[in-house]
Amino acid sequence: MIKIGFWFDAPFGYSGGVNYIKNLLYALSLVNNGAVRPYVFFSTEVPHEIEDQFSKYATIVRTQILSRWSCLWFIHKVLYKVFNSMLMVNTLLKRYEIQVVSHVWFVYKGRPSFKIIAWIPDFQYLHFPELFPNIDLEKESRINQQIVAQSNAVILSSNCVFEDFKRIALPCHINRGSVLRFVSQPSTPLTSDILTSEIIEKKYGFRGRYFILPNQFWVHKNHLVVLKAIAWLKQNGTEVQVLCTGNTHDFRLSGTPYIDSLYNFIESNELQENVRILGLIEYNDLMFLLRNAVAVINPSRFEGWSSSVEEAKSAGKTVILSNIDVHIEQNPAKGLYFDPDNSVELAEILQKVWASRDAVSRAEAEKLASIALHDRTIAFGREYLALIKKVASEDDAS
């Protein structure tokens, strides 16, 4: 049996990371057959609801080393920064006989007694350096090179990310890259009756049919092209409604210039009844809204592997998405593509989808999607299991 650890050194508000690891462990559980025993190392403040979700698929270890501002956390930081030592982490992992640590996204100092599988979700800074004003871009590439050099394998989210990986990795390390395409599971049963449209509409202050745009409010997510398309439709006699969810603060930029510009556009074009910015909402509510939407929209200019597109695929939804390479690679069965700079092209697609009544019922679409989802999840789990076995069996000198 291979003991594999996940060192979750990230805020619990990083819902994307939490959901990614949870979905990965679920996929692994379907194909594992006792070959791998996963451990997840959390801080002592891990919310019980997150611990409960993960405990189905892994042994949970709470440690103050991951609890910010605790005594052990502070000692670890001093050892790491001053003495280049991971002594406390090494000691804890050794206690649990961890052989492989997976999805490492930081530089590991010293010589570990275990194998490392790194995870680099994307290299957005190579494409949009202007969105990272507080980052030394050359230093960022050097850090990524160090992460690659210390690792036995590096998980990349898509073929598009792999092409970027080849730009920054040393030639001798390129063969360490491995594409593992994320598969998303709906967090609530598709047949759940806990939530109703009446409850959700009252909670979020809207009525009737809607599109949903479930992206963080970051500049590259390109919400403005959707607002322009809605304004064009309104001017031409078609009223639609779009619900926008996600974190409204872009941590990379000071202030809130992006979200402010969207609110200004909504007000100046009188779109208050057409566009509703809900912000960050509960994940179960998000999945309810997604499943009941007319369609899902993703106008993004860049993705490593879009979770919103993946969730739409898993629920059998029509997806209206920008024609960037990674979206084409994701290839949703009910995908409709548009140029992310062409608001009129998007408006025409929105108008057509809004007016149509899909002959396939939602229940039937979800059933078909569920079958495809199972097959994709099994493939996801098998690819990851094969990578773990490969890394664990490698000679330490390789």
Brief descriptors of the model:
398 residues, alpha/beta, Rossmann fold, 2 domains, 3-stranded parallel β-sheet, 15 helices, 15% strand
Model description:
- With 398 residues, this protein is α/β, with parallel strands linked by helices.
- The mean pLDDT is 92.
- It has 15 helices and 13 strands.
- The strands form three sheets. Strands 3-2-1-4-5-6-7 form a seven-stranded parallel sheet, sandwiched between helices.
- The protein is globular, with a radius of gyration of 22 Å.
- Helix 1 crosses helix 15 (362-393) and helix 9 packs across helix 14.
- It has helices at 15-31, 48-55, 71-83, 87-95, 124-127, 137-150, 159-168, 197-204, 223-235, 257-268, 283-292, 307-315, 325-330, 343-355, 362-393; strands at residues 2-7, 36-43, 59-63, 100-104, 115-120, 153-156, 177-179, 211-214, 242-245, 275-279, 296-298, 319-322, 335-338.
Shape: globular
Strand content: 15-25%
The CATH topology of the largest domain, please? Rossmann fold
The oligomeric state of the chains shown is: single chain
Helix content: 40-55%
What's the average pLDDT? Answer: 92
* Total count of helical runs of at least 4 residues: 15
Largest sheet: 7 strands, parallel
Estimated structural class: alpha/beta
Count of individual beta strands: 13
Instruction: Indicate how many domains the architecture comprises.
Output: 2
Q: How far apart are the first and last residues' alpha carbons, in Å?
A: 22 Å
Which superfamily, in CATH terms, is the homologous superfamily of the largest domain?
A: Glycogen Phosphorylase B
By CATH, the architecture of the largest domain is named 3-Layer(aba) Sandwich
**CATH domain class of the largest domain:** Alpha Beta
Order of helices and strands: EHEHEHHEEHHEHEHEHEHEHEHEHEHH
Strand order of the largest sheet: 3-2-1-4-5-6-7
- Segments where pLDDT lies below 50 for 5+ residues? none
Radius of gyration over C-alpha positions, nearest whole angstrom: 22 Å
